[in-house]
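Duplicate of #3305? Posting structure anyway:
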């Protein structure tokens, strides 16, 4: 899945059938591209979606997708941990400020 404005003919320099793309460590040939039939190039994101059919065996693609999901999961976990750390820092700073006021 991709944005319709990124693919040919919506974007002359965009991907088209027969092109090759690299997904993680594999080069994959594009079979067909199906943009949303109501997509327009009028500067709106409405219907800005396209499906790319790849020429590849499911077994090979499965490995690539698993790696992509793991990478995305690790990135999400990193973001969650960073948010939790920010909350913890705010809590600790709040406690320090309250103790300072009480002892002040």
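Output from current build:
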């Amino acid at each position: 899945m991709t944005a319709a404005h990124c693919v040919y003919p919506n974007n002359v320099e965009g991907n088209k059938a027969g092109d090759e793309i690299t997904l993680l460590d594999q080069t994959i040939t594009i079979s067909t591209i199906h943009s949303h039939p109501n997509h327009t190039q009028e500067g709106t994101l409405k219907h800005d979606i396209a499906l790319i059919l790849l020429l590849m065996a499911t077994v090979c693609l499965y490995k690539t997708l698993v790696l992509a999901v793991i990478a995305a999961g690790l990135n999400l976990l990193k973001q969650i941990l960073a948010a939790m750390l920010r909350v913890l820092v705010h809590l600790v700073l709040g406690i320090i400020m309250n103790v300072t006021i009480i002892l002040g």
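Confirmed duplicate; merging threads. The longest strand covers residues 26-35. Residues 21 and 28 are 5 Å apart (CA to CA).
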